[in-house]
Amino acid sequence: MDFSCPSQGDLSEYRFQEVVAYIFKEKINCSLKINYNNHTKTIYFRNDEIFFAESSNREENFGNFLIKKGIITKDQFDMASAYMKDNRIRFGRSLVKIKVFTYENLFHWVEEHLRWIALSCFDMDKGKYLINSLDMKKMENIGLNLDVLRFIVTGFRYLKDYSYIRELIEKVDDIYMINPELISRMDLKKFEFHIFDLLKTNNRVSDILEKSELSSDDTSKILYMFFLTGVISESKPDIENAIQNSVNIVSSPRFFSSYNEALKYYNSKYEMIFKMLSKEIGPIAISILSGAIESISENLPSYLKDITIKSNGKLNEDQILKKVWYNDFEENLPFFLKGLEEILYAEIFAVKKNLGVDYEKQILQWINIAQNNS
């Protein structure tokens, strides 16, 4: 499946989710305009995040959104509108001034409104889209920090056009994992992770559809999502070239003689990440890395859950080794390494989210240089 798309087109030919996935995979900083029924929705992308969204449709403005959600009444809407007009301030601020909202309410519901505008685009199968260069002057006091990959996953849960998805998946025979590390960033539900688990041991679509606990349509939708985001492909990956040519792949040695040896190897990488973070943002680096690991805890084996990070950024080796010692080493090693690798990618993503893409590239280069010299 080739989901590349031109910078402008028709949503009947290039679906919204395919356009956003293209922006994600190509790492494009841009504004995406969707024109439909004489209205325009615009979503702003920067550094793998959506930082703002807006709609020209007055029916979708902040006030009407709050009424539809039952957050404010029509009387409160009218009071805030009058105050806004008299004092020439924004509607949200007027809600605070008339004591309908606290500042915490305001920031929360503005973010929810922006998220709702962006997610509503997944329902569109008609209209025109245009990928524009990003206007760096576009700044708002309250915006989003919505990870694009998680945005795609959430939007897929609303897709109902199974006929289109079914037609795509029916054309596929074999599938292969090419970027499984993306899973740690996707915040999958258990039923979605179930399909990923099937992909680990099955590479035929027919086998996955047969073994899945989900309906054929829902299984196909999740496979389609994995195709779009680049987790899987119809082409068998060239592992050697992928390792040499992609800065985003961090490979591990093919052999470890003990849990302790594997843990020390990965701990050297975790320490490197911590040193970069702590140098740039100080003592909160530990809490950021702990939060990154917590965010993927559902995907980790039990002996890597509830672990603590030491003051040097390494995982507490004694704590982990006490939990894992009774697991058969040869049988359990692949799962142990997979868990350590997922923690690594979660921490690298934390670097990117807090420091930016340039720092992410730097830490990846350092890690690869260190392992090539080991």
Structural summary, described in words:
- This protein has 374 residues and is an alpha+beta fold.
- The chain has three domains: 8-146, no CATH class; 160-237; 259-373, no CATH class.
- It is 53% helix and 10% strand.
- The chain has 16 helices and eight strands.
- A six-stranded antiparallel β-sheet has the order 1-5-2-3-4-6. Strands 7-8 form a two-stranded antiparallel sheet.
- Strand 3 and strand 4 (49-55) form a beta hairpin.
- It starts with 7 loop residues before the first strand and ends with a helix.
What is the element layout, followed by pairings?
Blueprint: E1 8-10, H1 16-26, E2 30-36, E3 39-46, E4 49-55, H2 62-68, H3 74-87, H4 91-97, H5 103-120, E5 128-133, E6 146-147, H6 148-156, H7 162-170, E7 176-177, H8 190-201, H9 205-211, H10 216-229, E8 232-233, H11 239-245, H12 259-281, H13 285-294, H14 317-324, H15 329-355, H16 357-373
Antiparallel strand pairs: 1-5, 2-3, 2-5, 3-4, 4-6, 7-8
In a few lines, what is going on in this structure?
By secondary structure, the protein is α+β, with helices and mostly antiparallel strands. The protein has 3 domains: 8-146, no CATH class; 160-237; 259-373, no CATH class. It is 53% helix and 10% strand.
